[in-house]
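Batch manifest, entry 17 of 40.
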Amino acid sequence: MTGNWLADNYIEILGVATSLVYLYFSIRQIIWLWPFGILSSAFFIYIFYRTGFYADMSLQVYYLLVSIYGWYHWIYGARERKVEKLPVTRIRWQTAIVLICVFVILWLGIAYVLINFTDSDVPWGDAFTTAGSIVATWMLARKILEHWLLWIVVDAVATALYLYKNMYPTVFLYLVFTVIAVVGYFQWKKNLS
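Output type: structure tokens
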């Protein structure tokens, strides 16, 4: 029984494992988080396609692109500033307003697509977590402290969605993500510039 479950879910387990490594490196601000983000995204593209989370599947493509951008920015952004490591910063209010608008537009647009063009049974929740993840990942690439706060909300909502879909390894992963986002916030806050 356990052997069958492992055989049927090994890709999801690999996705969870690479995601946990990604999170560990993210909290520690270790640049190797980006390659693990790429691996994790590749696994979850398949997983979300298989389970009908189409917006989340598309989000993984975005994660691949942002992982490349983040990797580049963490290396060359630090060099441009003539520092060893890109510093953690706080969000500026102008940036926060723009990101809130981007989030709302993405949420509504993604929900519209999911409602009208897919068989998704969780379009509003899937769209919410996708829009929030897009914004939070961009903030991570820029090393903005408050991305952790957004992740807390997104990961908690995602946990409920995956529980509804009986995706238990992913439920576990997102529960861990939620707790680690809290830890990450306080860890990064210590490193504010």
